[in-house]
Design brief:
Distance between the termini: 30 Å
Structural class: mainly beta
Strand content: 35-45%
Number of helices: 3
Shape: globular
Number of strands: 11
Helix content: 10-25%
Length: 252
């Protein structure tokens, strides 16, 4: 896919006591008996795989408002040349059913997605458009990598691996790797099935152990292209949990 065709893409979280010897009848002192061995401390039973992330997802879904920053890179081959497009933007969520995200970057790329209840509206360099052209899969280059879908991926994890604590931005966060359960995603957005075909999606999320809230989400989407695999990598950095935010549809 050449650069001239780039525009086509726009449509597309008690102490132990020592035992003393019993008194004896003789005045001769006896050595103290060997203290009884303390009762071994029981090692807590490990949580089932993924339960830690499940708790974080529950906390994430209970948050009434969430805002986030987005940074992404889209890499593909055009005329045997590797092309990299960088995009960035912001987004917000208001439970239960309001969402917006806006990304912009090189080559005049622009992706706006808005959801208010069942109403959707999308924006690109071509203009503003509604369903059926506007779908929840719109909002980023390629397929299956919109910020809206990224949130659904986080809320539908499978194959979870707890990678332990890491220092991120000076903070100790717990990292989980997972694959999104696409069948669960499709139960929430059944009309986007074609957008998820032939995709390989992997994700990592960093969770604050104190609040149990996700702080950063990385999504990697691999899809077949005309000249090899195309890759969309995106980071959502969550912030302002619980801070009210207004989300409305832009004018048509």
């Amino acid at each position: 896919m050449g650069l001239l065709a780039w525009g086509a893409l726009f449509s597309s979280q008690g102490p132990l006591r020592l035992l003393q010897p019993a008194p004896t009848a003789t005045p001769t002192p006896r050595p103290l008996a060997t203290p009884a061995s303390p009762t071994p401390t029981r090692t807590p039973t490990p949580l089932p795989t993924g339960q830690g992330l499940a708790a974080a997802v529950s906390a994430f879904m209970a948050a009434s408002y969430i805002q986030f920053d987005v940074a992404g890179t889209y890499t593909f081959t055009s005329e045997r040349q590797l092309v990299t497009v960088e995009l960035s933007g912001r987004g917000a969520m208001a439970r239960p059913d309001r969402f917006r995200s806006v990304l912009s970057g090189q080559y005049d790329s622009y992706f706006g997605f808005y959801k208010v209840g069942r109403d959707l509206r999308c924006q690109s360099p071509k203009g503003t458009f509604d369903p059926p052209e506007c779908t929840p899969a719109f909002g980023a280059p390629g397929k299956g990598g919109s910020p809206y879908l990224a949130v659904l991926y986080l809320q539908s994890p499978s194959s979870v691996r707890d990678l332990g604590l890491e220092t991120v931005g000076g903070r100790r966060l717990r990292r989980f790797a997972f694959k999104p359960d696409l069948a669960k995603v499709l139960t929430q957005e059944p009309g986007i099935g074609p957008a998820l075909e032939r995709l390989d999606i992997a994700a990592d999320v960093w969770v604050d152990p104190a609040s149990n809230l996700p702080q950063r989400l990385d999504i990697r989407v691999y899809q077949p292209g005309r000249e090899g695999t195309e890759v969309w990598t995106m980071t959502l950095t969550f912030r302002d949990y619980g801070q009210p935010v207004q989300i409305t549809l832009p004018p048509p």
